[in-house]
From TrEMBL:
Name recorded for this polypeptide: Glycine receptor subunit alpha-3
The gene coding this protein: LOC105361140
Compartments, as annotated in UniProt: Cell membrane; Membrane
TM stretches of this protein: 242-263, 304-329, 421-439
One GO CC annotation: plasma membrane
Length: 442
């Protein structure tokens, strides 16, 4: 401290020497005009550096740091990328005695130089981050190659098709096209060494990044051909979520609706409630299965599955309807005869004692009927007719009611019994068909 304060010829000399070395050294600050040709008028920043009349080649490199916010409803996704463009401008002058491999330049100088006019073709919004410093840099290599690197957050559109949702695979692109230069003046090419780097740890909630590749998307317009490059991400939907939140619960609801076939046909409230509840639960499931999707006009795979399940539950309900009809018809047939005018009381039933007539009756009717008839006739005889003339045999009584109802019940039970096998069999068949059909997409 004391020495520096000391005025004297020695520090002055040191300073002078340092200054001289500084001027000689390449460390002196660089001005933009040091890079331009001696006559700045020769440099046209609107014209690409066409060496030997060849189109300028701009090499691209993209590092994808993140993919997220895949939104089916708006068909967009977000990507965080490092985007590097490299081109060679032979018109530039190198800073004198450039010893290092490259030199950092001020990014603002780009405004006064020729630079590729690439834009993100399918971007809805591009965010350039400025914290803590603007996220871009510019390098000048010894061979007059310029590298411009920028970090961006892009919101990109991605056309999605949900025909086989949730077994679908979506291809989302990131396209970069030249805005104003045709292929005669400039062409984009992927960096021959490392065109694309995608972070291995990208994790998406519903989709899985199965493939990533680069391609050329040069477009022919009426004004000419415009160079374009694209990165393609192949995203496959994970089935796990849908298996446990849609397919398994739906199958369980359908199976639940079959419980009705084991409940006795007379229990109408139980069976109807079961069917209606299943139907309602299923429609809730169906609505939930496509909450995140845009209302597309075509039938999706999950819709087909859900519709078939709904039909099954509906048919289970209709099966009860059929069973009920069979039962009611049986009962009404039993009830019908009393509604008809009752048969006139037999004018002369056989005497209650055994006689020759009773032997004839034995032959015609079974014992039960005979006793029944005799009982009836005895009563009527006692109540109405005191002295009957000898009667003709009474008309055969209509087929007995109880057997009719029972037959109807047996028929109803048979319908239930058939359904117990038919419904599960059909459902299993349809399930197998569905999963075989979509197995190749899983
Ligand atoms: C991207 O593609 C490259 C080459 O095809 C592959 O090595 C890499 O694992 C892929 N990255 C991801 C995240 O799939
Ligand atoms: C544009 O490209 C097409 C083929 O991709 C080619 O036939 C045509 O000549 C090109 N036009 C120009 C102006 O380069
Ligand atoms: C300090 C230094 O090395 N200067 C050299 C810079 O390059 C020119 C020619 O390119 C030389 O003449 C200088 O001596």
């Amino acid at each position: 401290m004391v020495e520096t304060r000391q005025p004297g010829p020695r520090p002055l000399l040191v300073m002078l020497v340092l200054l001289a070395v500084g001027i000689a050294d390449a460390q002196k600050s660089l001005e933009f005009y040091d890079l331009l040709p001696e006559d700045p008028k020769l440099y046209d920043k609107m014209r690409p550096p066409k060496k030997d009349g060849q189109a300028t080649v701009v090499y691209f490199h993209v590092t994808v740091m993140g993919l997220d916010s895949i939104d089916e409803n708006s068909m967009t996704y977000a990507a965080d990328i490092f985007f590097a463009q490299t081109w060679k401008d032979n018109r530039l002058r190198l800073p004198e005695n450039m010893t290092s491999e490259y030199r950092l330049l001020e990014v603002d100088w780009l405004k006064n130089m020729w630079r590729p006019d690439s834009f993100f073709k399918n971007a809805k919004s591009v965010t350039f981050q400025t914290m803590t410093i603007p996220n871009h840099y510019l390098w000048l290599y010894k061979d007059k190659t310029i590298l411009y690197m920028v970090k961006l957050t892009l919101k990109l559109s991605c056309a999605m098709n949900f025909l086989i949702y949730p077994h679908d695979t979506q291809e989302c692109k990131l396209q970069m096209e030249s805005l104003s230069h045709t292929t005669d003046e400039m062409i984009f090419q992927w960096d021959p060494d490392v065109p694309l780097v995608v972070d291995e740890n990208i994790e998406l909630p519903q989709l899985q990044l199965v493939k990533n590749y680069t391609a050329d998307c040069t477009q022919v317009y009426s004004t000419g051909n415009f160079t374009c490059l694209e990165v393609i991400f192949v995203l496959k939907r994970r089935l796990g979520y849908y298996l446990f939140h849609t397919y398994v619960p739906t199958c369980l609801i359908v199976i639940m609706s079959w419980v009705s076939f084991w409940i006795k046909p007379e229990a109408a409230p139980a069976r109807v409630t079961l069917g209606v509840t299943s139907l309602l639960t299923l429609s809730t499931q169906h609505a939930k299965s496509q909450a995140s999707l845009p209302p597309v006009s075509y039938l999706k795979a999950v819709d087909a599955f859900m519709s078939v399940c709904t039909v099954f539950v509906f048919m289970a309900l209709m099966e009860y309807c059929l069973v009920n009809i069979v039962l009611v018809i049986g009962e009404s047939r039993e009830v019908m005869p009393p509604k008809n005018p009752p048969p006139p009381p037999p004018p002369a039933p056989a005497p209650c004692t055994t006689g020759p007539d009773s032997a004839k009756l034995d032959r015609i009717y079974d014992i039960a009927n005979k006793e029944n008839t005799m009982l009836l006739s005895c009563r009527s005889q006692k109540s109405s007719n005191a002295a009957p003339p000898p009667p003709p045999p009474p008309p055969p009584p209509p087929p007995s009611g109880p057997s009719k109802t029972q037959r109807a019940k047996v028929r109803a039970l048979n319908i239930d019994r058939v359904s117990r096998f038919l419904f599960p069999m059909l459902f299993a068949c349809l399930n197998v068909t569905y999963w075989i059909l979509f197995w190749k997409y899983i």
